[in-house]
């Protein structure tokens, strides 16, 4: 069955869309290009589209605009998309959600029968005791209640999201008549304008309005009907080079300083505008009566959109409930589309007769005054509607119909305005909730300020666009009395248990009343207790009904019964969109030798943003290459900072706890850094590489923090010092092992003898024209040289060393091997072996502190630490041969209590037993003391404290 | 936090380009009372209202500067160099 119309009495039907098809729950649905999933489903005659959250009530399309929860579906495995918003694509796979075994026959619908017995907090009250019951009950409840489920292997996982940025002069949200008029005015002032609209076609509600444009600030539109005029206006703007139009963009948040966030396709748009104009329009108010949640009950604007935008007659027989002339307009559109109108039910005794009411009267369609809908009948679709007096009491008459249209006034779409920190207020004159005060540089115009006719919308849009372009204040507009729609005096309490206020969470008016009786009689507490407005639509469709009924049922005044704060996101946003592609959040840093490592079969380690070689094969074996032959590690990720200038010594003496005045050119020294709180956070080396030029190498993770810290102190202190961060520009390798001297002598023209280039010295040389800085240091405990060179030579030098080193047996090694080697040598790693409570004396690096200086960072706290007794110490230890190796972090136990912890623990390949570092009580920290390490599995090993290091304790290997 | 911070060098930029360090405080003298040092390290006023703060333009010009910011309303603030703070006094 197709509900497409070929012609319409009042306008020309566009039938140009190409025919396409998609699957809905496995059945083929025919659609036209330009259809949304919803419109295609309605056109195909489908009534049920979804099931409600809790009671599994069948639901059809309601507003065709995605403001409520009715159209949530799964599209190509992506859950919780709005069928009202997603355009039909050929071959897409659409599935309904939250039903079993099928959408049309859902067993859990039985819940709906029990609505009277399932009030708020029912589950919590019922399954509260005995205690064991709740986990079982919860499992079942969660199974039944819910939305779409996430398929982690689904097709949408291959989707790529991006973040994009715009900086227009003026950002207009809403491409209806006032938004377009504002855009035109601002463009006329020479401004760059960005216009966002949430539908594929600009025009807003005007696209489905037959009203005649009597007056317009743009004279070319006068005399046209509204839908023609708006298309003409949109077409005029289309090619303006100063205007960017984003159609189908969902604006979900407006934040401080005019940051507008929108989803546009797969892109997260972050728009920073000088001025923001919110022209978000209005939706039909939600009418609450018995059984008001049924397939076939739709809003007036939803019906109009289906008819005029998509060319669909949504039903056979219809009843329209209205409180204003707009309902008559909808009735006329239905009539023109060939739908049989059973009745128009008007709640007004008599009103100012509008244009459309007059037109309708001529058609001999029965109009019932001072009446409203009392009750709807039918389960899977609407079958009958009881109509009765608006004041309540006995119903007057029943009408068989498959469509009930509610045109009971408009409620401004306040979500985005509310994010500007404004509270909604009741405007008694306009009979709507409005937000009167927006932050500076933010404007609102159009129906979001209350209903208005097309002439006012165009005029006021134009004036607001001008005001924004000129930087003037938000203009204040008055509404003509006939533009205001009187809010329905009361929704009909006609008995029955199915007066749904909040469709997302299945909350009825009866439940709300019971909660009020329980004492939750403020809008805020009522919301929290009943979860009204806390579902997927976040109150977009019900916030006004909640406030209105709260006023009615609690006796709150209209000024107190205002909706709760509306927060972003105004529309459902997927996590994928917010996170974007990974590299946007965390850039990956690779050393120049990255591809050499890959060629060698490396396993990488993430060290901050850096990819570092962890190992190439077996780290234990790699360690033996260092101890027995010669091996090379990429140390390009270390921080490299150069200091120079007249006050450099003074500055270093202040920044660091050590002293450097006697550090001659060509010398290198171990240094630590502490904070003002006296805590050790960093170590590295300082070298004077040329007269007055000091070269500091830091750990990989701290390079930026230390550079930044240096800059901070240079900002606040009076030092004439230059600081350069060379970390990225300089790369390096450490070549180490007994054969290194022999190897490097064969390729570098430099005297590597112990006398000419002693331990803790640095030298400069060139290799094939490349300038090198060489540092003889001993982190690995073996004779070794760290060689630094410009990064652009990184890859070629690595390959050169590998090639020339082959006869010497040169092998690569990684960070894991380096950790084993330094542990054999008893060298700590700040941050791994120390934490935010580790003072340098306890950590055993007090030797690097010279506290006889006038002032330096951390002096006060170090002085305090020095006075205190040492409680714990970081010590190197060894295990017996054959002992199991505990993992890092396990406890040191004494008398059954944890007294310390192991910070690093490895098997020593050189020595053949376990080694490590641990924090132990000072009393058991002397060389030769024993302590007990308890592994995770409960077994214990006895460790022996070492004097210096497990390997080469006297440092003879290093120094020769 | 989505406000724009004014860098004295680069002008208004998204606050996500900057790092916040701390409230502005005078460093005690080296021989000051240990309690004074403890307060300097560990205590912050976290004022409701206007306070002076250290900010760093991390993803920009890499400058340190001071901001007088109303903590109840991020958008009202004044940015200036440290040397101008000294001149004020």
What does it look like?
The complex is a heterodimer of chains A (960) and B (89). With 960 residues, chain A is α+β, with helices and mostly antiparallel strands. Chain A is built from 25 helices and 49 strands. In chain A, strands 40-41-42-39-33-43 form a 6-stranded mixed β-sheet. Chain A has a 6-stranded antiparallel barrel with strand order 44-47-46-45-48-49. In chain A, strands 2-1-7-5-6 form a 5-stranded mixed β-sheet, covered by helices on one side. In chain A, helix 5 (177-188) packs parallel to helix 6 (226-238) and helix 5 (177-188) packs parallel to helix 11 (454-470). Chain B is of the alpha+beta class and 89 residues long. Chain B has a single domain (4-88), classed as Folate-binding superfamily (Folate-binding fold), CATH 3.30.2270. Chain B is globular and about 40 Å long. Chain A binds chain B through residues 255-257, 259, 272, 676-677, 708, 711-712, 715-716, 854-855, 859-861, 864, and chain B through 1-4, 14, 19, 21, 28, 30, 32, 34, 37, 40-42, 54, 56, 58, 62-64, 74-75, 82.
Summarize the structure.
The complex is a heterodimer of chains A (960) and B (89). Chain A is of the alpha+beta class and 960 residues long.
